[in-house]
């Protein structure tokens, strides 16, 4: 619960920090690189983390890294590049190059960051001394604090200014449900096909479909939705979809699959599925004139 919240806050903060006029690198690159770096570090130290306190490893990898990185946001960002959502004066070939750049660069950067994180962890592992596991009182206290931290997102949403809702507080409400859904899908389905992580594939595909649907609802031309609905949809997009889908686990699974054939099949199938889903949900309505390229609803 708490690490899902921290992951969302880190993603929104890094995105805001790296979004500025004249930026050279798209904002999500920083998010994916940071999450994969930490994921690689944790993977290399899985044994001492698990020996000390197994929930700590799950919290850092599934909770923080999985919520920090986002597969659905990456897929939508790539799809917007194909469509030239910002209406930049450029040719269709440039649109293709922009989409390819975000696709290839994200995968390369994510895998590179993952391997670098593992390298750093392996370098310091001889100096990593495992402490005795926490006692029952500390474990129960941590559980209670975790529940209280997530429960606190409700008064935070209600009491902080309305301008914060679409920026962060609405996303915090839906952060843990998204992470929990991904965790349940992974533990239930990943073991079905040893050469294809079906649970992560399902989470990334389902989250991409939801994000496309929420973006469509925010971009209607006939009957724009209210400010409250627009804010909740933004919270679902950043919180639930952002935590349901993950690049860090996706990159880790690509790196750990045994053969090159399995790696390429999993990576390409997941990527193509995400883009196909967005074409069916977002593209069809856009080309039919029912929605615009960017959102039409307002948060005010």
TrEMBL record:
Keywords: Cell membrane, Membrane, Transmembrane, Transmembrane helix
Compartmental location: Cell membrane
Membrane-topology annotation of the record: Multi-pass membrane protein
One cellular component (GO) term of this entry: plasma membrane
Catalytic activity: fluoride(in) = fluoride(out)
A GO term for molecular function: fluoride transmembrane transporter activity
Any one Pfam family match given in the protein's UniProt record, by short name: CRCB
Spans traversing the lipid bilayer: 25-45, 57-76, 104-130, 142-160, 266-288
Superkingdom, taxonomy of origin: Eukaryota
Entry keyword annotation includes Membrane: yes
Keyword presence, Signal: no
InterPro entries per the UniProt record, alphabetical: FluC
UniProt similarity note: Belongs to the fluoride channel Fluc/FEX (TC 1.A.43) family.
Role played: Fluoride channel required for the rapid expulsion of cytoplasmic fluoride.
Identification of the protein by name: CrcB-like protein-domain-containing protein
Organism name: Roridomyces roridus
